[in-house]
Every structure is written in structure tokens, then in C-alpha cells.
């Protein structure tokens, strides 16, 4: 074969291949299924152009478990489309398109439309009834609301309604827990549901972190109540005052943070919002005894610092705090500043015979000390010391000291003679009590002075 012939043959083969490629491109058959609005539509195209009179075959993938009334053979129209029937239940189908000598297949899930649907939301507030048909809002659908049977309560919004352009009807909140039946009707279709309605909680108040900085939270139907008023007062019948007393307003989270308590205290908290109020009583405790570890001055300063944001003056509050928390305040059992309750003065029933005091506390002479009127705050000598005139605030010598006792701490030298008479003190004690103003007796020495319980009552 000549080279020329071979060349011609090659050109012919290339041309034939090119023609075959064009034919293959022209035979690019496609099929799609659009399931919009629950009405499936099959479209057949070739190279992007609608194919009229193409054959479309629809079959169920799992016929043993599913069925579809639209499973059949169809022919496309001038637009290359075939309309299928709406499935009564969800089903998976194979769709095969054939045209001339070409064919193609696709698998698709067909979903049954929802049809008329009724839904009720916000059952613990103002219930909202929504009616849709194939997921589209139904305007002017009729809605009937009745109280379900077998209850001892009645729902206030029983009656007939009509949906708005959004397919909704808003009902009033239940005054008490109740079950209702709701029926929606559109054209020739209707749907019903039964719903439990709960009474809304309304305004609610909570106080947390009661052993630190208390946080007051105010909610209305479980939603944060911003700008609600909060009033805090110390509960009645207590000897303490809460540092955080006052009026407040909640933030965007419906909360108010209070000052930590300086001492264990019970407070009353009241919240007001719109036309509703709610109150609670809370016990606040001191965390870890921090207040006891601080100096009184620091406590007062901290108290003042915490009052800076308080409405109104702070003078009265500071005064009350200082009075109630002053560490110098004597406890109840301490008695009056002049001494314990049982430390009688000279006006007691014994008329000063026992040095004006029945107590052995500081400054109170014991019973045997006689009627000394010493004013140097020291005890006088006991009865057996006689009527010594020592004025140096020191005791004379006891009986066993003898006449020669010269200890400067017990008596002066010129009191030696008086010490010799100490043995007679037991007999002369009562007489000495009568003469102590003139004789400078033991009362003028280190006797019972003007201590916490004085001995200057009337003498018998």
C-alpha cells in the first residue's frame, strides 16, 4: 500500500472519531426530579435542552416495605416534564428516562407533605396557636378552643378564632393549670391537638450567696426583669442592722449585688415590677468570721465605704452601727458602770456595816475589814489590825508581827504602839466603826475606798 493511501485512511479514521464524539455529546441525556410543594416533577434534558416524548419510568426501590401510587411509565411533554402524584407517605423511587438509544436513571426520596398542621407554643405563658399547610402559614383558618373534659377548671379563652396573615392566634395566659383541645380547619381539612397549659410563674425573687455578697435576682415569667425596684430592710426583732439596707434597681440581667453582712442578720427583700410585687425573707451570715478579725475602726470605715452608693443620708446608719458594734460595750451580765448588781453601796440593808459592799470584787472590803472610809482605792486592814491611823495606803502588821515589826511596807515606825493593841481589835471593831470619822481608824488607811462599789453609805 502506498504512503498516499495510508495517509488517506488515517485522515478518515480521525474524522470518523470526531463525528462519533459529536454524536456522543449530542446524546448526553439527563433527568432531574423536583419535589417542591409535595408535587414531584420529572424533567428530561439532552445537553441542557428539554427533551419532548422521552420515556420516564418510575419504580419503588423497596416495594416490599413501601408503595407509591405514582409508580408507572410516562412520556414527557413539550417542556420535557412529567408531573407525578403526591405520595401519601415517604417513599424512595428510581426514575429512569429513555430517549432514542440513550437512557439515564436517578434515585430520589419523595416526602409526603405535612398537610394541615397545628402547633401550640408558650404553654406556660400566653399560648400561641400556629396553623400551616405544607409548612406554609394558613391565613384565615378557623381555630376552636375548648376546655378538655374531666376537669374542675375552665379556660377563660374558650371560643372560636381566625388566624392572621402569619397563621397564628394568641390566647391569654391560663389562670390555673388546665388542659385544652384546639382544632384548626382550612377548606375541607381539619386537625386537632390537646395541650396542657400551665399558670405562668409571674414575678419571682431569689437571693443567692447569702454568706458572701448576696445577689438578688428578679424574673418575670422566667425572663430577667430589668429596672425592677428592690427594697432591703432588716427584719424586725433583731439587735443588729444590715449594712445593705436601702432601695436598688436591677440591671439588664435582673440582678442586684448587695454588701456582705457584718454580722448574722435576717433581712426582708421586696421586688416591684410593673404592677406586681413579691417579697422574701433571707438569713445572711458572716463568712469565716472576717468581721471579728478586723479592728473596730476598720469595721466602721468599711461600713462607711459600703454606704457610698446608698440613697439618702448615712449619718443615722453609721450611728446605729457604731452603737451596736462598739467592742467597749459591756455584756448584759456586767451590770452598771458602778459595779455588779450585787455590789451594793452604803444604802444597802446593812447600812454600811459591811463596808458598803457584799462583794469581794476590787475595791470592796471583806466583812472583817470594818467601816473604813479610806479614799485611796485600797482595802482597809482586817478587823484584827485595830484602828490604825496609817494613811500611807499600806496595811499595818498582822497580830503575829509583834510590837517590833518595822517593815516599811506594812506600817510606819510611829504606828508601832497601835500594832501592840491589835489583839483587841476583835472587840473594838464595832466601836471603831462608829468612831472612824474622828479616830482615823483602819478605814482611813488602805480601807475600802471608792472602788467599783464604794463604802461611803450611811453608817449606823
Automatic annotation (TrEMBL):
Bias (Gly residues): 442-460
Extent of Low complexity compositional bias: 335-361
Compositionally biased residues, Acidic residues: 404-421, 428-440
Annotated segments matching region Disordered: 320-460
Protein name: Uncharacterized protein
Amino acid at each position: 500500500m502506498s504512503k498516499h493511501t495510508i495517509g488517506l485512511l488515517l485522515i478518515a479514521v480521525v474524522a470518523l472519531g470526531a463525528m462519533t464524539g459529536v454524536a456522543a455529546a449530542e446524546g448526553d441525556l439527563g433527568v432531574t426530579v423536583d419535589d417542591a410543594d409535595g408535587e414531584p416533577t420529572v424533567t428530561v434534558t439532552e445537553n441542557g435542552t428539554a427533551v419532548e416524548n422521552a420515556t420516564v419510568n418510575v419504580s419503588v426501590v423497596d416495594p416490599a416495605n413501601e408503595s407509591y401510587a405514582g409508580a408507572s411509565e410516562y412520556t414527557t411533554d413539550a417542556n420535557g416534564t412529567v408531573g407525578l402524584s403526591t405520595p401519601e407517605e415517604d417513599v424512595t423511587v428510581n426514575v429512569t428516562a429513555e430517549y432514542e438509544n440513550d437512557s439515564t436513571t436517578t434515585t430520589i426520596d419523595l416526602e409526603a407533605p405535612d398537610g394541615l398542621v397545628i402547633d401550640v407554643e408558650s404553654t406556660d405563658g400566653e399560648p400561641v396557636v400556629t396553623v400551616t399547610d405544607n409548612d406554609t402559614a394558613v391565613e384565615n383558618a378557623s381555630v376552636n378552643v375548648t376546655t378538655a373534659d374531666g376537669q374542675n377548671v375552665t379556660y377563660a379563652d374558650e371560643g372560636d378564632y381566625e388566624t392572621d396573615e402569619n397563621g397564628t392566634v394568641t390566647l391569654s395566659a391560663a389562670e390555673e393549670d388546665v388542659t385544652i383541645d384546639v382544632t384548626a380547619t382550612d377548606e375541607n381539612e381539619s386537625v386537632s391537638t390537646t395541650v396542657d397549659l400551665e399558670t405562668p410563674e409571674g414575678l419571682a425573687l431569689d437571693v443567692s450567696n447569702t454568706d458572701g455578697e448576696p445577689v438578688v435576682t428578679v424574673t418575670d415569667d422566667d425572663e430577667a426583669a430589668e429596672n425592677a425596684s428592690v427594697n432591703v430592710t432588716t427584719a424586725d426583732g433583731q439587735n443588729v442592722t444590715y449594712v445593705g439596707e436601702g432601695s436598688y434597681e436591677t440591671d439588664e440581667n435582673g440582678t442586684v449585688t448587695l454588701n456582705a453582712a457584718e454580722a448574722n442578720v435576717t433581712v426582708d427583700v421586696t421586688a416591684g415590677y410593673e404592677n406586681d410585687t413579691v417579697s422574701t425573707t433571707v438569713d445572711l451570715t458572716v463568712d469565716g468570721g472576717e468581721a471579728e478579725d478586723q479592728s473596730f475602726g476598720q469595721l466602721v470605715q468599711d461600713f462607711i465605704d459600703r454606704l457610698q452608693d446608698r440613697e439618702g443620708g448615712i449619718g443615722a446608719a453609721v450611728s446605729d452601727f457604731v452603737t451596736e458594734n462598739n467592742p467597749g460595750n459591756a455584756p448584759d451580765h456586767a451590770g452598771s458602770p458602778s459595779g455588779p448588781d450585787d455590789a451594793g453601796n452604803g444604802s444597802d440593808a446593812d447600812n454600811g456595816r459591811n463596808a458598803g459592799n457584799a462583794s469581794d470584787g476590787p475595791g470592796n472590803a471583806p466583812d472583817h475589814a470594818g467601816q473604813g472610809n479610806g479614799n485611796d482605792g485600797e482595802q482597809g486592814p482586817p478587823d484584827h489590825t485595830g484602828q490604825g491611823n496609817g494613811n500611807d495606803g499600806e496595811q499595818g502588821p498582822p497580830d503575829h508581827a509583834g510590837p517590833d515589826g518595822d517593815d516599811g511596807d506594812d506600817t510606819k515606825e510611829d504606828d508601832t504602839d497601835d500594832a501592840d493593841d491589835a489583839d483587841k481589835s476583835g472587840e473594838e471593831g464595832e466601836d471603831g466603826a462608829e468612831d472612824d470619822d474622828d479616830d482615823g481608824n483602819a478605814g482611813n488607811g488602805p480601807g475600802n475606798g471608792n472602788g467599783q462599789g464604794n463604802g461611803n453609805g450611811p453608817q449606823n
